Amino acid sequence: MTRASGHKDTNWAKRPRRSTGERERQVSVDYKGERFATVLRADLLVDGCAVGSEATGGAHRLRRAFVSLWLGACAALAAAVGCGGGPVAREQALGEAALGHAAALCAACPARVAGQGSVGAADWIAARLPREGTEVDRFEGAPGPMANVWHCRVGRPVALLVTHFDTKAGIPGFVGANDGASTTGLLLALANEGRLPVAYLFADGEECRVAYSGEDGLHGSWRAARSGRIPRGTPVIVLDMLGDAGFTPALAGNGSPWLNGVLRRAAAEVGVALGDAGEIIDDHVPFVAEGYRAADVIDFEYGPGNAWWHTARDTPDKLSAASLARAAALVRRAVELLEEERE
Ligand SMILES: [Zn+2]
């Protein structure tokens, strides 16, 4: 995504290339104001997401066993701090699960460039969703093969939740932990929890290669918005970059005013301060253009002066389970309000 006007210098060429031969990797997580660290040992990990690896020409050690390892650590952590079974504990567990999925996606499929290996990441995501109601929609995009992942187990979804999972091309070492993986992890956690009466779309090809145009960027969301899979009256909530430990979510100004109003009400009720991001080019744009009421919830302040956005510094250690838990609470309340409005 980007601002609808202006240009940000990402300065990516000066960033160091991330080592792909490392034997272990440290991932840390914020939890109840404290920071916990986990070291992931490469000898516990196995290969996966081969398409993404081939496409980048790297010899990445890939990590399918990571998910169970991470979730086990999170469960132990939750038990240690005495979580009960109420709504707050439920959101915390969702935040932790989302962070685990996000970190695992970055480890398994570090480069998820649309048309150059993103299909492997789509298959990775689909494999982590309940089989029932999951479909991978493969298509030929301008730079090459792409795939959207759909998941829906309800007949008449109250809303469509959308994230992109692809990564920006041409940034050495970029794994898109916040930009792509964080909300992918959030939607994976929500879909696996299975409580929300919604449809899920994991969209490929959000990132543009050069500049957003009819042929560059938003590939998956254009395809989805024109597909007729979801009735036009269904509200569409796009979630992007919501894993930042410094949680400052905002609404795109070019989303549906009605849906923005619902999201602002939900945010107020769950105690989330929702700012105004101004006009944003993101996956909500094709849905708005096709007549949907669509909104974009995005935290476009990532690092000092947004310095980590579109750089090799966008890594899982910058993410926070607490932020993802708050995003989950916001989404849940918004869906509840939408359900009430529909009845
Ligand atoms: Zn991006």
Structural class: alpha/beta
Strands of the largest sheet, in order across it?
Answer: 4-5-7-6-8-12-9-10
| Residue runs with pLDDT of under 50 for 5 or more positions | 6-48, 50-72, 78-84
Radius of gyration: 18 Å
Q: Any idea what the CATH architecture is?
A: 3-Layer(aba) Sandwich
Major beta sheet summary: 8 strands, mixed
* Gross geometry: globular
Number of strands: 12
Kindly give the count of domains.
1
The CATH fourth-level homologous superfamily: Zn peptidases
Text of the CATH class = Alpha Beta
Question: What is the CATH T-level topology?
Answer: Aminopeptidase
Question: What ligands are attached or bound here?
Answer: zinc ion
Q: How would you describe this protein?
A:
- The protein has 343 residues and is an alpha/beta fold.
- The protein has a single domain, classed as Zn peptidases (Aminopeptidase, 3-Layer(aba) Sandwich), CATH 3.40.630.10.
- Helices cover 35% and strands 18% of the residues.
- It contains nine helices and twelve strands.
- The chain has an eight-stranded mixed β-sheet with strand order 4-5-7-6-8-12-9-10, sandwiched between helices. It has a two-stranded antiparallel sheet with strand order 1-11. A two-stranded antiparallel ribbon has the order 2-3.
- Helix 2 runs antiparallel to helix 3 and helix 3 crosses helix 5.
- The relative contact order is 0.16.
- About 21% of the residues have low confidence.
- Bound molecules: zinc ion.
- Zinc ion binds next to loops.
